[in-house]
Specification:
Layout: H1 9-21, H2 24-27, E1 29-40, E2 47-52, E3 57-62, H3 64-67, E4 79-89, E5 94-104, H4 107-123, E6 141-146, H5 151-163, E7 168-173, H6 181-195, E8 200-205, H7 219-227, E9 232-236, H8 244-248, E10 251-252, H9 256-263, H10 267-301, H11 303-306, H12 309-351, H13 353-357, E11 363-366, E12 369-370, E13 382-387, E14 390-395
Parallel strand pairs: 3-5, 6-7, 6-8, 8-9, 9-10
Antiparallel strand pairs: 1-2, 1-4, 2-3, 4-5, 11-12, 11-13, 13-14
Length: 407
């Protein structure tokens, strides 16, 4: 008789896990179910919950790396479609579904995800009116972020060309639905800002289902719109369609066509307005000239204009008075300055070398330098003596030092 294989619990669980992991049908499964017992582990960021239908329940886990990519926060009672693989948690011996991706099932879940994100971003102040930037009155460069093939871009271009032909339109083509749409929209907005290539941006698409418009409910798109240094007009869907992008933008247009009309003024209306202003300014100027002419005529009729000399009599008297005061002030100032300078003049005169020479003294020079000591000359040197009224060249016959100066 063959001896039966005896396994430990750990060995059994490991074997069952290997069987589950090796089953291709269980490695990539889609499950539609309702969430229950949802837990968001605040330390790890992992999601733990159960998936159930009318008859069965399975435990599920979604690790943080995958959970961070969700555009909504799961809740109990929410119906979802998940993608993942079935495996065994060896420690507890329980098989569970490891989820890679999760999408809401049905409009109710989409609306819940929409309201969750809207509330969270609103609390951050992302939709605050203080953040809204005014649109330029005459934008000369208009950036358009939308699909290059949809009806929306044709409507935008036609209306902009008709209303304001001076503006240059710059189209940055993007996908407006699907998994790649949010990243392309974000990159387009960032590119316009990096290059400062536009005065205003129109971001949007034509109408569609809530699933088709969902790219404009992406959190990343909303943050890119809100952080744009270039004013953004959101133009998504029809008038009844609202997206997160609408709340983050500086202006929400009900349709792409309306966005084009809100973006630029009507060129013909502006020309008419300028012409109206020109006519009004001309009329105002004519009325002003007529009023001034009437005032001038009234002044001319006054008595003082009948004798022009009266106009200047007071002026002549005032001018004569000012002239008299000026002459008097100048004479008084000159006298004060003379009195102040007289003592200084005497001091300078007393210190002047010429004053000393006028009393019979002379200055001796040798080689154009004044002689300050007998030691600076020798017998045979030629010196120059200068008096107040002339000079003489002399030859030194002998030098005699004053003994008192050396004692």
């Amino acid at each position: 008789m063959k001896t039966p294989l005896v396994l430990t619990v750990g060995q059994l669980n490991a074997y069952v896990k290997s069987v589950l992991d090796g089953d291709r049908n269980l490695n990539h499964v889609f499950v539609c179910a309702e969430i229950s017992n949802f837990t968001n582990h605040y330390r790890t960021g992992h999601f733990y919950f159960s998936l159930k239908d009318e008859t069965s329940v399975i435990r599920a886990v979604m690790f943080r790396s995958n959970a961070q990519r969700l555009k909504f926060l799961p809740q109990d009672g929410m119906r979802v479609i998940v993608r993942g693989q079935v495996s065994l948690y060896e420690r507890d011996g329980q098989y569970q579904l490891y989820i890679d991706d999760m999408q809401p099932d049905g409009l109710g879940a989409f609306n819940l995800a929409f309201e969750q994100l809207k509330e969270r971003l609103s609390k951050e102040g992302l939709f605050s009116p203080e953040r809204k930037r005014p649109l330029p009155r005459y934008p000369m460069h208009i950036g358009i972020v939308t699909s290059p093939t949809g009806a929306a871009v044709r409507d935008i271009i036609n209306i902009l060309s008709r209303r304001f032909p001076l503006a240059q339109m710059i189209l940055q083509p993007v996908q407006v639905q699907g998994e790649d749409a949010p990243s392309q929209i974000i990159e387009a907005i960032q590119l316009f800002n990096e290059k400062k290539a536009a005065d205003v941006l129109i971001v949007g698409r034509g109408g569609g289902s809530i699933e088709e418009l969902w790219a404009f409910n992406d959190e990343g798109v909303a943050r890119a719109v809100a952080s744009s240094e270039i004013p953004v007009i959101s133009a998504v869907g029809h008038e009844t369609d609202y997206t997160i992008c609408d709340f983050a933008a500086d202006l929400r247009a009900p349709t792409p066509s309306a966005a084009a009309e809100l973006c630029v003024p009507d060129w013909h209306a502006e020309l008419e307005r300028v012409e109206t202003l020109r006519r009004s300014a001309g009329q105002l100027m004519r009325r002003r000239l007529e009023a001034e002419q009437q005032r001038l005529d009234t002044l001319i009729l006054r008595a003082k204009f009948q004798e022009p000399t009266r106009l200047f009599e007071n002026g002549r008297q005032a001018l004569a008075t000012l002239e008299q005061r000026l002459r008097k002030a100048a004479a008084e100032r000159l006298l004060r300055e003379n009195n102040r300078l007289a003592p200084l003049t005497g001091k300078l005169d007393a210190l002047s070398p010429l004053k000393v020479l006028s009393r019979g003294y002379a200055i001796a020079y040798h080689e154009d330098r004044p002689i300050r000591s007998i030691s600076e000359v020798s017998a045979g040197d030629t010196v120059q003596l200068k008096w107040s009224d002339g000079s003489a060249r002399c030859e030194v016959l002998e030098t005699l030092a004053d003994k008192k100066c050396y004692e």
